[in-house]
Design goal:
It is a single chain. The chain has one domain: Metallo-beta-lactamase, Chain A (4-Layer Sandwich). The two termini are 12 Å apart. The relative contact order is 0.17. The chain contains seven helices and 15 strands.
Length: 252
């Protein structure tokens, strides 16, 4: 078994070292700024990454839950993908992003990277019925013999889908959960897991070690890391949480 480690970089972005691979989740490396789109809510980033894209260096794999929102893929993230690492995402991302290295999937399809199996798992970016407004999103399960099974939720807000994933993968040992209860005026509901739902998700998944992502650095996140930790404490599962100081490598 190789060493598994995570470096929290900010927002939804982490560097996961697992099975000998360097894996980036939803790459966001821009400095603080506002992102305006005539068709969407202006998103405001409040903090830069714990490490720069150049400091990270080449990566083996990008897990991109979706590409249409700057809090999951910003300008520097696009530059990283343009360098050509294998990037797993939605069919929409594969058709719209350049570089030829972005591969799109349907739910439950798999990609093999050497002897690693990545299963693309379902996610819902908001309440039922929100798909036409926010677009598709996916999560990921990583498996390799002799390594801990890892779940990366992406911008999922559905506990029902977490339950489906847990039923197919009963041995998840590490979960990277995107929370923050993101909200925009167009939809009167959380677009990602609330803190209490994240705690419930951890229980559904069989109490893996949990890395909190997507809980800070953006103004439209309605809950923060303190809320996340408080919800786990209220559920009596604080011991599952992995402390991830920004920019520091933590072995799991």
């Amino acid at each position: 078994m190789s060493t598994t480690a995570v470096t929290y970089l900010g927002g939804p972005t982490a560097l996961l070292e697992w099975a000998g691979l360097k894996i980036i989740t939803d790459p966001t490396f821009d400095p603080p700024q506002s992102y305006s789109d005539p068709d969407e809510t202006t998103l405001v980033k409040t903090a830069g990454p714990g490490l720069s894209r150049d400091t990270i260096g080449p990566v083996d794999l990008v897990l991109l839950s979706h590409h249409g929102h700057k809090d999951n893929l910003d300008w520097e993230g696009l530059e990283l993908i343009a360098q050509g690492p294998l990037t797993l995402s939605t069919h929409e991302a594969a058709s719209e992003l350049w570089g030829g290295s972005v591969v799109g999937f349907d739910d439950w399809e798999q990609q093999h990277v050497g002897d690693v199996t990545v299963t693309i798992v379902p996610a819902l970016h908001g309440p039922p019925g929100s798909l036409p407004l926010v677009g598709p999103v996916v999560g990921f399960v990583l498996e390799r013999h002799g390594e801990p099974t890892v779940y990366v939720s992406g911008d999922n807000a559905s506990l029902a889908l977490v339950e489906q994933i847990a039923s197919r993968f009963p041995q998840i040992e590490i979960a990277l959960l995107f929370a923050g209860a993101a909200r925009v005026p167009e939809i009167d509901a959380a677009l990602t897991l609330t803190s209490s739902d994240a705690a419930a998700a951890a229980t559904l998944l069989g109490n893996p070690r949990v890395v909190a992502l997507h809980v800070e650095d953006w103004e439209h996140f309605s809950e923060n890391r303190t809320d996340f930790e408080s919800a786990f404490a209220a559920s009596g599962i604080s011991g599952l949480l992995v402390a991830t100081p920004r920019g520091e490598r933590v072995e799991l």
